[in-house]
Amino acid sequence: MLRRTRNEAGRIAARPPLAGRPDSQTPPRTPRYVATMHDAASPSHGLSLRLNGRRVLVAAAGEATPALVRLALRAGAQVTVCGGPALPADAAHPRLRRDDRAPCLDGLRLCLTADAALAGRARAAGVLCAVPGRPDLSDVAGPWDDAAPATDAPATDAPAMDAPATDAGALPAPSRPRAPGRASLVGAGPGDPALLTLRALQVLATADLVLHDRLVGPEVLALAPAHARRVDVGKRCGRHVMTQAAINRLLVREALAGAHVVRLKGGDPFIFGRGGEELDCLRDAGLDVEVVPGVTAACAAAARLGIPLTHRDVSRSLHLVTGHGSDNEIPALDWGALAATRGTLALYMSTRTLDGVAARLIAGGMSPATPAVAVENVSLPGERVRLATLATLPGVLAGDPGEGPTLVIVGEVVARVRAGALRAA
Ligand SMILES: C[S@@+](CC[C@H](N)C(=O)[O-])C[C@H]1O[C@@H](n2cnc3c(N)ncnc32)[C@H](O)[C@@H]1O
Fold it and tell me: In three state form, how does the secondary structure of 222-273 look?
């Protein structure tokens, strides 16, 4: 029997096992969920099932096994896998164990299985069941089968369930089924829409929700459909308007609710863009993710300046380096080793720390006379190029750091800068 309450917004809220008895198995901690029930009246919020610390059985679930295991682990559950294919080697996890004997149903919170007979036995033993793709046999709906209808309600960062409460029993099936959506991590390039890839354009054209960095300009955002919501999740004065954890949650929640969520990031999503963290969260939630590369600032700046980033006569390697460590400190890299490569260094996020970075490179053996260039706002209005040397560029930038994003390139290739690029600065 479920106990449900309706809050002022008309949402159904659920509470963990009731019953006037303390549930020693339910430690008070951050709620984590794997399954969300939606009701037709308030589709973006609904009833969720708390699985943190609870036992979940994934049994005879066939090809869906790895995705179901990931979901349950993500929700904090203790997971037993029984039957189904071997899990990939990288699935090892302290809360995961394999036991291919007849499944033990005692103490289970949830049984995820493709075996209808097992689901029947589990339910008879008082265990909640979900049979992927068979809502008629399931007590719990989830991202493994058709979920909730889409919503135009604005996304919030509130957890799907803020008031726990469920006992056991059959839950109503959603009235308008909608499959889980998908997510795309898309590189927007350095700013000029002409530097987007064709694939980025195609993906944007099917977006329902675009979560974008601050530097992604209006011309690029205009390429998403008119109905798509656009949310700026970027930085303001060095601070994110939304934390990375909140961005991750928003991405996952909206995609699970059926949207095509496009995470649009400046440059390339996997270069100093936290794209890897977002990818992990989406994959952990069992979602399909497409990654679309973008033109990274170093390549855009080099093209603008007309310099090759590598050249067999003067530079045999390219190093993409951040000048920004935690607390605005210089990152603890082996600057001497970088100097010794005699390759090209592309320094991202280095305007404030360039003085110290240059000192470390010079101490590591790089000539103070090595050509160095700072390119601000590459491909954008306000583009500015300042050419100097490793020793003098920090002073140039200190006197006038500029307000736009700035990339610094250090290396002998910089000497090949074309005169036209400097005149335009
Ligand atoms: C958080 S990193 C993101 C890098 C991005 N993912 C890429 O691949 O270009 C931000 C830094 O990239 C560089 N950057 C990004 N866009 C730029 C632009 N249009 N002009 C110059 N530098 C840029 C700057 O060094 C900036 O501080």
Answer: CCCCCCCEEEECCEECCEECCCHHHHHHHHHHHHHCCCEEEEEECECCCCCC
